[in-house]
């Protein structure tokens, strides 16, 4: 079964007239690995989305769709916090711990505050 990311990636590949082998070679993975990603059987490699965006002229809509699909597929996220104050690290940890119990409205308010910056 195709993942949302896989569907989006496959659509971009086909729209660009690329074979799986061509796209895989351009982004530095095997066509077999790309196939498993398209089918949703493998996690998305760390920089795959950025590599695809960098190698191909994608419309703003395609970029947004691919990035959204990647976010939807994520179960975890690694964030570099070495240059962040302890106060800010505590905020990030608190948000992560409480996120699953937050309402849509609470998340929207926090997102609104973040987008002000």
Question: Could you characterize what this model shows?
Answer:
There is one protein chain. With 117 residues, this protein is mostly helical. Helices cover 64% and strands 0% of the residues. The protein is elongated, with a radius of gyration of 17 Å.
Distance between the first and last residues' Cα: 39 Å
N-to-C order of helices and strands:
HHHHHHH
The number of E-state strands comes to 0
What structural category arises from helix and sheet content? mainly alpha
User: Uncertain segments of ≥5 residues (pLDDT<50)?
Assistant: none
- Overall geometry: elongated
Strand content: under 5%
Determine the mean pLDDT. Answer: 92
Q: Helical segment tally?
A: 7
Largest sheet: none
Work out the helicity level. 55-70%
Output the radius of gyration: 17 Å
């Amino acid at each position: 079964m195709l993942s949302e990311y896989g569907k989006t990636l496959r659509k971009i590949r086909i729209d660009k007239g690329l074979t799986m082998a061509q796209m895989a070679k351009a982004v530095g993975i095997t066509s077999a690995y790309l196939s498993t990603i398209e089918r949703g059987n493998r996690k998305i490699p760390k920089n795959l989305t950025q590599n695809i965006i960098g190698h191909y002229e994608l419309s703003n809509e395609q970029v947004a769709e691919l990035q959204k699909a990647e976010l939807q597929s994520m179960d975890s996220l690694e964030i570099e916090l070495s240059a962040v104050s302890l106060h800010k690290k505590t905020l990030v940890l608190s948000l992560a711990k409480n996120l699953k119990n937050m309402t849509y409205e609470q998340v929207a308010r926090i997102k609104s505050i973040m987008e002000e910056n």
